[in-house]
């Protein structure tokens, strides 16, 4: 079973969130990075308070299955996917969930997703079928800060705002534990729209704190991949179609 997500502590009042989170995320060895990150967070929190998120979000846990046979790759994905929190509607709820989650206990190759409510974090979901995602390989020592910022930027509509004119949508973000890094993904709806894909890339790079930005391109840093390019995509979509 996946790690449970409980709430044993009250959420910080909205007016205190920017102070406590900026302090928690600061790097004592890098004052300039801490200042930049605090400024980024305060800017976002200022936009959000006191209104809820424009979209509601759900948190999912994807338990890796070591069986890589073809039969297993086409098996119902629901056996691996668990809904941990079904409605994250504002910044206080997000931090109540995020701060109580045992991130250090996520097992190798397991994944945590934060997705728009009503969209399942699978290729075959109707919202995802024609989409893809930017994937970032992030060293372990930066992975949690990277995912934290990506999640906030996503839920605060910083990514969505640049895709509106392309009629594209950012549907969610994921972090998957690997041996010496995390694979962190930003999913969008239109995998064949080069303009929106490029705009999303540039916005991610521009809005991340400077010390978290990838230092290069290509497979060793980050890349874009359409869901249809993954092994097992066709089988998953065909199976989902027969069920529905």
TL;DR of this structure?
This protein is of the alpha+beta class and 244 residues long.
Describe the structure.
This protein is an alpha+beta fold. The protein has one domain (60-65, 74-242): RNA Cap, Translation Initiation Factor Eif4e (2-Layer Sandwich), CATH 3.30.760. Helices cover 36% and strands 20% of the residues. The protein contains eight helices and seven strands, in the order ααβαβαββααββαβα. The protein has helices spanning 14-25, 31-48, 70-73, 91-99, 140-155, 160-163, 194-207, 233-243; strands at residues 57-62, 81-88, 111-116, 132-139, 170-177, 181-188, 222-226. The chain has a seven-stranded antiparallel β-sheet with strand order 2-1-3-5-6-4-7, covered by helices on one side. A hairpin with a 3-residue loop joins strand 5 (170-177) and strand 6 (181-188). It is globular and about 55 Å long.
């Amino acid at each position: 079973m996946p790690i449970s997500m409980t709430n044993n502590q009250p959420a910080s009042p909205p007016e205190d969130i920017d102070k406590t989170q900026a302090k928690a995320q600061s790097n004592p060895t890098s004052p300039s990075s801490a200042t930049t990150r605090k400024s980024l967070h305060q800017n976002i929190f200022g936009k959000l308070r006191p209104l809820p998120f424009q979209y509601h979000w759900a948190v999912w846990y994807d338990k890796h299955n070591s069986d890589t046979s073809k039969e297993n790759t086409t098996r119902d994905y629901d056996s691996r996917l668990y809904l941990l929190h079904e409605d994250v509607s504002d910044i206080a709820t997000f931090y109540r969930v995020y701060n109580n989650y045992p991130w250090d206990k996520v097992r190798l190759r397991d994944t945590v997703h934060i997705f728009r409510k009503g969209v399942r974090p699978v290729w075959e979901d109707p919202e995802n079928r024609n989409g893809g995602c930017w994937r970032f390989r992030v060293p372990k020592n930066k992975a949690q800060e990277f995912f934290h910022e990506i999640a906030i930027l996503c839920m605060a509509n910083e990514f969505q705002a640049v895709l509106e004119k392309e009629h594209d949508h950012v549907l969610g973000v994921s972090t998957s534990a690997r041996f010496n890094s995390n694979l962190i993904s930003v999913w969008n709806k239109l995998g064949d729209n080069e303009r929106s894909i490029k705009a999303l890339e540039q916005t991610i790079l521009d809005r991340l704190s400077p010390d978290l930005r990838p230092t290069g391109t290509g497979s060793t840093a980050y890349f874009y991949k359409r869901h249809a390019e993954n092994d097992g995509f066709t089988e998953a979509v065909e199976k989902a179609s027969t069920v529905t």
